[in-house]
Amino acid sequence: MSETTSGGPSDGPSGGRPSAPTIVGQLADADRRRVLATIELGATNLVEVTAAADLPEHRAAKALGRLVDAGLVVSGDGGLTVAGEVFALAAREAIVRPTDTSHDDQPGDTRKVLLAFAPHGRLATIPTAPAKRLVVLDWLCQQFEPGRRYTEREVTEALDGHAVDAVTLRRFLVDAELLDRDTTGQYWRAGGSTV
After folding, report:
1. Residues 6+ positions from 131 with CB-CB distance below 8 Å
2. Is pTM beyond 0.90 here?
3. Nearest to 94, CA basis, from 14, 151, 7, 152
4. Alpha carbon distance 111, 8 (integer Å)
5. Using one digit for the tens of pLDDT, what is the confidence trace for 31-87?
């Protein structure tokens, strides 16, 4: 198995294993897909692969060589086998999401609630549990400066961009007594924690 073959194991992110993009690149070729499929279905040597894949021997051998060089097929005591663990590891690495640091400045329990309901700083849903809802509303309330008056439009614009509509959020903040309003349509921060 070559460590320097283009598209081979050295392209992988972890200890020489092929990455998901490398695997996809290897399987973009129809001959390699057919050869891999025949091995997965039980072919254990080049003669069986050639017959099962219905390919000329030189094409089957070339495809098999590329798969072995890439680390997707291995040869052992029982013959050829698909390196299933390579696929599983590449899949796990491919779905790793970036770490959400948007609430790192919050205390532990508050951070957990905000990561669950407002990942990456964008409110996805309002919690139904009153304590969690208050945490989320308090976080939203932080967008408003104490002592400053806001028009209804300014409040709506500040709350816009979340999955929950701004009008509903504005109503929740007023109901929770975190924002207050007067008859002229002016809003101000009436509660919430201070940073």
Report:
1. none
2. no
3. 14
4. 41
5. 999 999 999 999 999 999 999 999 999 999 999 999 999 999 999 999 999 998 999
